[in-house]
Amino acid sequence: MSQLELAYSYCVHYDNEPKDIKLLKMHGSLNWLTCDRCNSINDVSMQYIGENIITNINMNHASIYQIFRNNKINCKLNECRGSLRNIPFIVPPTINKTEGHLNISSVWHAAVQELEEAENICIIGYSLPETDLFFRFFFALGTIGKTRIKKLWIVNDDDNEAALINRYNSIIGKGIESRARFIKRPFSYFVNSELRQLFK
User: Fold this and answer.
1) Strands 8-9, 84-90: parallel, antiparallel or unpaired by DSSP?
2) From CA 136, how far away is CA 26, in angstroms rounded?
3) What is the pLDDT of residues 127-176, one digit of tens each?
4) CB atoms near residue 35 (< 10 Å)
5) Which end of the chain has fewer CB atoms at under 10 Å, N or C?
6) Cα gap 97→128, rounded to integer Å
7) Are 65 and 28 in contact (CB under 8 A)?
8) C-alpha span between 121 and 176 (Å, rounded)
């Protein structure tokens, strides 16, 4: 986004402008770091992340604390100037993510609003694990809006396609089922075929 000089907002602090493109990372991001003083989330450049990731470590045994170097940068919100923890803010898709979800409730609120107004929805590469109750609640809440969904694509080249379809059918509901399509192909295929046709 920044390379294309497009205005965007993560909607973490309810500070997005109407003209901003909403980039909603509902499970956190590698470039979100938390302040050790005010506990707010700061986004840092991906260049910083790239420069400070420790290389040549065995990721099978490394803890999250080992991924980043101990370079300190300061919180940029409300002149707090606290130090940012060099631990990415990630909320795993499990039932135990309530506390993390509260820290990014504004992101989920913005996502529900977008889903309520959406006519075409594409879910890319998400396997919908049974433990992710938040997504199930979010999808159910967002798709009861007044806007009629025209198309719903689930793009996923998961080997266990039957199990994936069953999990999604459990949340889609009869009202949307006839407009849903499962595409077991890479996302690049979807962009160059289905999506391209939509915008012709």
Assistant:
1) unpaired
2) 13
3) 888 888 878 888 888 887 677 888 899 999 877 888 988 899 888 877 78
4) 20
5) C
6) 15
7) no
8) 11
